[in-house]
């Protein structure tokens, strides 16, 4: 049972407000549980064999001639040459650039696709046996964080910010390891970082100053690989493809 489809927002709201019998609620929820379970099982079985990988997040709307698309491709290429696999959301834009760079570098290229009403379709640079499809965002996000040993975050929109803060939260609460989170593009990210420092840390004190140590901002592909290598050397680890 896939996620429900609606013609417009009003139809979606009307459906959610419609009174349903207990039997209808129980039946729909039960089938949804089986669908969720199947996505987790398929994801775990497919991802367990991929080896050390880095997730690359970024906008699906970035065009192939955009400077960040070209930079993401270079980053993924260098990452793959350094021995790391690449995981993306599997779609166009920055995701395509990430998979393309990994593919051209001869590395593992993973795509975690999800059906969206606008821009999402899988790109042609994903390894055929590592092209996974999801209906549920939260299952897909588990696969990103469970099987990544680093996060490279390119410029993006709400989805990219969601993935970034998910990774920060899980590391900050010690639910996953303290893997590197690398923001690419000082010009793009500086406003957000200043807001976090000025408002969340200094003004409202809702974030610990130490949490900023979880994030590194860079501008080049060499800096990304250096940050990953420094992390691996710190823990006496090495990629093993």
Automatic annotation (TrEMBL):
Q: Which UniProt keywords apply?
A: Cytokinin biosynthesis, Hydrolase
Q: Do you know which Pfam families this protein is assigned to?
A: Lysine_decarbox
Q: Catalytic activity, per the record?
A: AMP + H2O = D-ribose 5-phosphate + adenine
Q: Known EC number(s)? A: 3.2.2.n1
| InterPro entries associated with the record | LOG (IPR005269), LOG_fam (IPR031100), LOG_family_nucleotidases (IPR052341)
Mention any one GO cellular component term assigned to this protein in its UniProt record: cytosol
Q: Name one GO molecular function term.
A: AMP nucleosidase activity
What top-level class of enzyme does the UniProt entry assign? hydrolase
- Which superkingdom, per the lineage? Bacteria
GO biological process assignments: cytokinin biosynthetic process
- Record-stated family: Belongs to the LOG family.
Protein name, per record: Cytokinin riboside 5'-monophosphate phosphoribohydrolase
Q: Which organism is it from?
A: Flavobacterium dankookense
